Every structure is written in C-alpha cells, then in structure tokens.
Amino acid sequence: MQELQTLSKIEKKIQKKSPSSIVKIGIALFFIAVAVIYAYTNTGNVPNDVYLLIAVVFGAYMAMNIGANDVANNVGPTVGSGALSLTGAIIIAAIFEASGALIAGADVTNTIRKGIIDLHTFGNVEIFIWAMMAALLAAALWLNLATYLKAPVSTTHSIVGGVMGAGIAAGGFNVVHWITMGKIAASWVISPIIGGIIAALFLYAIKKSIVFKDDKVNAAKKWVPFYISVMTWAFITYIIMKGFKHIWGDVVAFLPFPYSKKPLFWEAAVIGLIFAIISYFWLKAKLNKEEIENTRKGINKYFIVPLIFSAALLSFAHGANDVANAVGPLAAIADAVINGGISAKAEIPFWVMVIGGVGISFGLALYGPRLIKTVGKEITKIDPIRGFCIALAAAITVIIASQLGLPVSSTHIAVGAVFGVGFLREWLQIVKKEDKETENELKIAEKELKNVLNELEVLKSKENKQKEDYKRIVTLMEKEDVLNEKIKKLKKILKKEIKAKYVERNLLWKIVAAWIITVPVAGVLSAMLFFMIKGMMG
Questions:
Q1: Per the database entry, which stretches of residues form a coiled coil (predicted)?
Q2: Whether residue 203 has pLDDT greater than 90
Q3: pLDDT of 207-242, one tens digit each?
Q4: How far, in Å, CA of 139 to CA of 133, rounded?
Q5: Which of 31, 37, 332, 424 shows the greatest Cβ crowding within 10 Å of its Cβ?
Q6: 7 lies in a domain?
Q7: Same structural domain, 138 and 72
Q8: Are residues 444 and 509 in the same domain?
Q9: What's the CA gap between 70 and 323, in Å, rounded?
C-alpha cells in the first residue's frame, strides 16, 4: 500500500538522521554512570552500598526501557495521525513524563508489586535484595527484547512477572497469591477489548454524525464541541484520579471544608464536568465563526489540538503512576539497604524518582521511535479523528476499570484501541466511504468515455465526411485512449484498496503473543537471575 511505502521512506530518513547504535549505547551508559554517582551522593556511606549501587544500575536501565517501550503508546497515535512530528512528540512526552514522575509521583509504593507474593518468603534482608534486583533486571531485559522485536508490552506485567519469578525461586510456588495473579491475567483480555470497543464506538459515532454527512461543516459545528467536551471530561477526571492522587492534599489544601486524602471518583467527575461544559460553549461559539472545507480533511483539523493535549496528559499520568511502579523494586532495595529491614511499604526517595523520570526521557529519545512507529503507523492507518478516538478510549477505559477495581494495563488499552479503529475500518469497508472522490472520478470518466464512443460511432457512420469530421474523429480517438488509461488506473487503485486489510495481521499476532508470554518470560528470567546472584553473593 502507498501508506506503507511512505512509512518506509520516512523510516529511512529518520535512520539517516538519528545517532548510530554505538552513540546511543554510549549516551545510555553515560546516563547510568551519572545515575550511580547521583544516587551515591544522596545516600552517603551506608552498609551494603554496593548492593544499592548495582540496583541503581538496573533501575536506570529499567527506566530507559520504559521510555523506549511503554511511552510509545501515549504518543504513537499522535505521531501516526500527523498531529505531531516524531521529534515534537518525543519532546512533549519526555517533558510530561518526567514532570509526572517528579511532581505527582508516588511517595509510597508496595515493595512487593501488587501484593503477588508473601513477604515472609524472604528469610533475611539479603535474599530480599537479591530477589528485587533479579526482578528489576529481568523486567528490564524483557522490555529491551520486546522493544527490539517492535512489540509494545506492559511494564507493570513485566515487573509482576519478575517479582513472581524471584519469589518462587526464593520460597517456592506456595508464596504466590494466585488469586491476584488471576486478576492480572484477566486484564490481558479485558484491557484491549474494552479499549478497542470504546475507540470503535466513538469512531463509528463520529463517522455517522459528521464524516458520512453531505453537509460536513454544519454537522461538525454541531457535534465537534460535544465530542471534545466528552474528551475534556474524561481527561480531567483521568488526570485528577491518576495524576494528582499522590498530591491531592496539597492541591486542595486551601479549601475551607473537609476533603478526602485521595480524589474520589465523584469529585474528579464533577470537576471534569465543569471543564467539559466550559469547553463545549467556548468551542460552540468559536466554530460558528470559522470557515472550513466540507471534506474529511477539513473536519480532521478540529481534532489535532485535542489529540496533542491528550498525548501530554497521558504522558503526565503515566509518569505519575507507572514509573513509580516500575522503580518500586529499586525503592524497596534502597529501603532495605538503608534501614536494614523489609517493609510492606517503602517511601520512594526523590532521587529514585529523578532516575526514573529522567531515565524514561532518555530511553524515549534514544529508542522510542521504533515503538512509536509501530503503534502509530504500522498496525493501521491513523488520522486525527481515529487518534482522537484512541486517546479518548484510553482515558475512559482506565476510569471504568478503576471504578470496577480491575487491574488494567495502559499499554494493552492503547494498543487494543488502535486495533479497534482498524477493525472498524474493515467492517465498514471504509475505502468505499472515504474514496468517494475516486469513485465519482471513475463514474465521470466512464460517462465521458461513453459519450466519446457514441460520438465516434455517429461520425464514423456519417457519409460524405468533411475535413472537420476527420479532425474530430482523431481528437475523439486520442481522448478515448486517455480515458481508457485513466479508467484503468482508477479501477486498479480501488481494487487494490478494497482488497487491502486495514490491520496488519502479522503485527496483531506478534503483539498478542508478546502479551501472553510477558509474565512467564519475565518470571523465568528473574528466577534464573536470582539463583545466579545468590550463587555469586553466597
């Protein structure tokens, strides 16, 4: 397809401009070295500081892998739709990811991720430290491999697998809370399906209410403010629940009445509704004054700015939550080394959040483009309307899952939403709808050819032809050749597009397979690393 050829050209240009592999590795190693020095200056001379510094190396490596793999889901659709350039998306994501981690990052984390194993598994502090080191390194290695294979996977699931594997290696299968693991496994199916369905429903609604209308301009002026106000509500609610939950007390400290320690759903929803109503009336007034093209391209322009904002907000919320979860094992090791004991919960020191926040920015800049292109361009073709639906689905799905108490993966939601809009395109045979101009052009050319042939037939059968008649016959015959060639090309285009699949099946099965094996692979790898570390240290 033409879009894949274009993608190939873009990729070659990016590869020419991007730093070489050796330079990237050098920058990554430099960041890890700086992280070790920074951690050492912030922790001082503590017993077993070698363990801590080794853990910092693993933690910095993990943070870069999060940036390379996980963050692509936040900005991939924005890049794929053309709303932002690859460079612009990386800059915005890096700033907001780091801001989310440093400003609104968790100050406390469960040292045993998701409570999947029993703390009594570990007989002493050293075994606990070795297990957390193995979990951290195993998750990072798996994310690195997944990024190389261009498979967007869940950071959280990688950590879960790592902790589970190390726990089993340290204390056997009985230490795992299998009910919790069952809920996490269920999210592999629940997350992408919910995300895909919501994205497809919004895309279908936008098509029916705006895109498929003959008068797209008036339809857009009526419905675009509504859709964007829905997105405003969803993202304000989402960002309060997920981005501000750790600093909610500071945010609302000025209020004269009692408030909850963490934002409740109804509080976030009401604030979101207020912003949604304001955005609706503001956009309504603004759009009534604007003139736009009565085409899909003209309508797409309305969704570009909201899509850019969604990428920024998704990145901020991701930095405030997932980064803290990912560096949780590093925080657990720091707590165990400094305090000499195992805590059910441990504070995340600011220096750990700095390593996590800055590390994801480095990883995103160095290796993020690989996954950004996969999510944004290679699964299915994305334009601003489709990207808008994907981002909106991601926010709404997280809100629904939070209220139902379901452990979902932001990666699975975003990628599921991309597949959702792709399969909707196939179901609607979207080419026939979107390429009306091509079909109309074909009909006009066929009608014109018919008229040419009729006129030719009349002239050829005419007796006593004049000089002008012969000139007209030559002109018509030339026109017939041109029209036949044009019709042939138009039919070829339509036939090729109709036969095309709008979702890359090879990528679909590769990503699903990567999701399924994430926890087992990270677990096995973690168990092996635990025994290696134990053998070396013992």
A1: 428-473
A2: yes
A3: 999 988 888 888 999 999 999 999 999 988 888 887
A4: 10
A5: 332
A6: no
A7: yes
A8: no
A9: 10
pTM over 0.70: yes
For residue 345, the 8-state DSSP code is E
Q: Does residue 534 contact residue 130 with C-beta atoms inside 8 Å?
A: yes
One domain, residues 162 and 202: yes
Q: Is residue 10 part of a domain?
A: no
How far apart are the C-alpha atoms of 22 and 460, rounded to whole Å?
73
480 domain residue, yes or no: yes
Sequence-distant (≥ 6) Cβ neighbours of residue 294 within 8 angstroms:
215, 216, 217
Number of neighbours of residue 278 by Cβ within 10 angstroms:
12
Give the C-alpha separation, 321 to 70, whole Å: 12
Whether residues 422 and 512 share a domain: the answer is yes
Residue 114 to residue 159: CA distance in whole angstroms: 10
- What integer best gives the mean pLDDT of the chain? 82
CA–CA distance, 258 with 270 (Å, rounded to integer): 17
Cα–Cα distance measured from residue 306 to residue 300, given in angstroms and rounded to the nearest whole number: 11
Q: Is pLDDT larger for residue 433 or for residue 407?
A: 407
Close Cβ partners of 326 (under 8 Å, ≥ 6 residues apart): 62, 63, 66, 139, 155, 156, 159, 356
The verdict on 370 and 299 lying in the same domain is: yes
Please write the tens of the pLDDT for every residue from 283-306.
Answer: 988 888 888 888 888 888 889 988
Same domain membership, residue 209 and residue 134: yes
* Percent residues over pLDDT 90 in the chain: 21
Domain count for the chain = 2
- pLDDT value at residue 8: 46
Q: Are 271 and 236 in contact (CB under 8 A)?
A: yes
**Which two three-digit tokens encode residue 104?**
């609104």
DSSP character for 176?
B
CA 366 to chain centre: 17
The answer to whether residues 352 and 259 belong to one domain is yes
CA angle 342, 346, 349 (to 5 degrees): 125
DSSP 232: H
Q: How many residues does the chain have?
A: 538
Q: Are 303 and 385 in contact (CB under 8 A)?
A: yes
Residue 275's DSSP bridge partners are: none
List the one residue out of 104, 92, 64 whose CA is nearest residue 311: 92
Q: Is residue 199 part of a domain?
A: yes
